[in-house]
Amino acid sequence: MISARVSTLATLRKALVRLETTRSPEAGRVRLGHDEADMVLQGGLACAALHEVFAEGRFSATATGFVASVARRIADHRAILWIRQDFAARQAGDLAMTGFAELGLDPRRIVVVFAKNAEMALRIAADGVACRGVGVVVAEIWGETKAFDLVASRKLTLACSESGVTCLMLRLAATPRASTAETRWVVSAAPSPSVAEWEAWGEPVFNVQLVRNRHGSTGQWIMKWVCDECIFSESAIRQSPAHSQSLVASFTDRPDQTFAYARRQAG
Description:
Strand order of the largest sheet: 5-4-6-7-3-8-9-10-11
Helix content: 25-40%
Strand content: 25-35%
Number of helices: 8
CATH topology: Rossmann fold
Radius of gyration: 18 Å
CATH superfamily: P-loop containing nucleotide triphosphate hydrolases
CATH class: Alpha Beta
């Protein structure tokens, strides 16, 4: 069993080396729309690759919105396969199709699949990435898990490169570990600029940190998602950080129980 695992790991390492030496850093990228971020990414986010997005549990909705927006940029009008663990809907709520529509995504092109644990979620992600008709695979995994290790990330990276499908790993209430991800992001909420009362709320604004970039430098930006144009841009909050408009309050009813339950169910 051990020798077979070592052999598999060696094979994956060789294949990954070939992939990294033959891929052009400029090929197959999608612009996010934020000039500084796209410049650091050497033209945009790499397609046919694995990317990780991390967030604290209280920013789960924020990270979900960010990943949905990125998925919209990459998938365009193709299908998005979104994989969740069973308990995620019970503890954090269902994915709101009306909310996705407001972000500019077509709910008819979003396929949501539930998995009983992280291992099954990763297996479904691998199957989804192998389907060339899918635009983006989103694997939402809560808490710490041993299932997503270096070997698992290598398999997903190779599968992405072979099929041309992009995989976004949405890691909530988790700590980053070694992986073969092309990029790694940490996302939290930022206040939206003030708007007229009839507009109800402003466009989504994210505090985004690029903490890993395999082919370039890193950075941190305040990025606004322009829903009508389905593109990121700079936010006015960069020049005017103080706004009197209130923000949505953090969860106060049962955070400890919720995240403890998530950690127990994650792996």
